[in-house]
Amino acid sequence: MAGINKDRENPFKHNWFVSSIWLLVVCYVLYTFNAMDLSWGRINEGFGHAGNLLGRMIPPNFSRWSLLLSGLVESLEIAVISSICGIFISLFLGLFAARNMMPSWISSPVRGVIALCRTFHPVIIAILFVKSVGFGALAGILTLIVASIGFIAKLFAEAIEEISLKQVEAIRATGAGFTSIILFSVMPQVFARFIGFSTYQLDSNLRNSTMVGIVGAGGLGGTLFSAFQRFDYDFVAAILIIIIALIMFGEFLSNIVRRIFR
């Protein structure tokens, strides 16, 4: 018995490899703090500047309400149009990317396209479209369509790959065609998740529609950027309040849609 206990490995034995990894992580964090000149002094100074900025933003200036309203409407239109188009395209791309429904010579290239759409941040894509089609809402719509495909098509494909193939085989045994198989065996299993993904993407596009305008792709972002350039901070506060209201509206709308299709 003593020999058996002696041979047992000590559960509290020190792991030098893990300790070395943690030591390297700590050293790297300290190095990055030093390389980027991060210090408590700079942070305290930043809090002081933030207090001055906040003081200049209060009270918000809503006198130019027509400019706010036009930017809000344009951001909302960009988000809705890009979400509808992006979700519609993603339904087909997600199906073609599902490896349990399509052969590899179809699913692999489609997965590559989806990954390519997900590679770049929406601001970078917006810059490319602004250079291609010019300033305005069209660049923003195209940007968010690409961003929607990169995110939601991947989720659609993964949801389809997790379905039970027993229902697919049962429908196929009746002699049904490919379209009937998708409608009566695949969609009933993933429809609720599709609704959840779609509402989340609409919410995401509402946020991004205000961000891409900073580089000239339409919406409230352009108005916000111009206000910052003019040091018009009370108007900046009004724009930020409108953006918050837009996001809250999107959250409210998403909750309603989820309740309907629950």
UniProtKB/TrEMBL annotation:
Entry keyword Transmembrane: yes
Organism listed in the record: Marinomonas ushuaiensis DSM 15871
Protein name in the entry: Phosphonate ABC transporter permease
Pfam families with a match to the protein in the record: BPD_transp_1
Domain ABC transmembrane type-1: 72-254
InterPro entries linked to this entry: MetI-like, MetI-like_sf, PhnE/PtxC
A molecular-function term among this protein's GO annotations: ABC-type phosphonate transporter activity
GO cellular-component term (any): plasma membrane
Membrane topology summary: Multi-pass membrane protein
Protein's cellular compartments: Cell membrane
Family, as annotated: Belongs to the binding-protein-dependent transport system permease family.
Alphabetized Gene3D superfamilies for the sequence: MetI-like
PROSITE patterns for this protein: ABC_TM1
Transmembrane segments: 12-31, 78-98, 135-157, 169-191, 211-228, 235-257
